[in-house]
Amino acid sequence: MNKKSFPLAKVYTLLETGPVVLISTSRKGIANIMTQSWHTMMEFEPPLVGCVISARNHSFDALKSTKECVINIPTVELAKQVVAIGNCSGRKVDKFARTGLTPVRASLVQAPMIMECYANLECRVADTRLVNSYNFFVLEVVKAWIVPAVKAPKTLHHRGKGEFMVAGDTVKLPSRMK
Ligand SMILES: Cc1cc2nc3c(=O)[nH]c(=O)nc-3n(C[C@H](O)[C@H](O)[C@H](O)COP(=O)(O)O)c2cc1C
After folding, report:
1. pTM value?
2. What percent of the residues of the chain are helix, what percent strand, and what percent coil, each to the nearest 5?
3. Ligand 1, atom 1: closest residue by C-alpha
4. Ligand 1 pocket, 20 CB below 6 A?
5. 90: exposed, middle or buried (Cβ count in 10 Å: 0-12, 13-18, 19+)
6. C-beta 79 within 6 A of ligand 1
7. What own/partner pairs with CB < 8 Å and gap ≥ 24 does 85-92 have?
8. Which stretches of the chain score pLDDT less than 50?
């Protein structure tokens, strides 16, 4: 295979292919949502998820102070809302009102779950040691919800600059991993 050098500034477009998620928070009774794709699994159980959330985002302050959020996983039907939510700030906009998404009460955290997403992960901040240096929050999932009828969710996977892949075929292979 012929290969060519690839710009370092675009490396993220090769790796940033986990599902795009919507992180909801609630501070002083005001709910907000941000679009997020720089996240990584860190542990099976309890599930730990690392998330990079820019300190410029309103969600950063809410997460830092309340230490709670919900990771909501949207499918392709919500693509327009996902992009809209990632291009405005809760400092100025009520994103639930703007997008028509429905906040529903979570069971263990104050942040709302987004009804239209096929999965919702209620999270508490487990570790903030890398927040000051990398804006990296370690979240523990304390309760998870899915819609069982959705067997092959068509999740969105960001490839940079507004380009997304949509999850497609499932292949099953023998594997010793969970
Ligand atoms: C596809 C997509 C992925 C994004 N991923 C991240 C991310 O991983 N971390 C981050 O800090 N911002 C990310 N953003 C940007 C935030 O969603 C954006 O700054 C948002 O307006 C923040 O809202 P807030 O100020 O209400 O918190 C992403 C935006 C888009 C459109």
Report:
1. 0.96
2. 20, 35, 45
3. 158
4. yes
5. buried
6. no
7. 85/22, 85/33, 85/34, 85/35, 86/34, 86/35, 89/57, 89/58, 90/30, 90/32, 90/33, 90/34, 90/58, 90/59, 90/62, 91/58
8. none
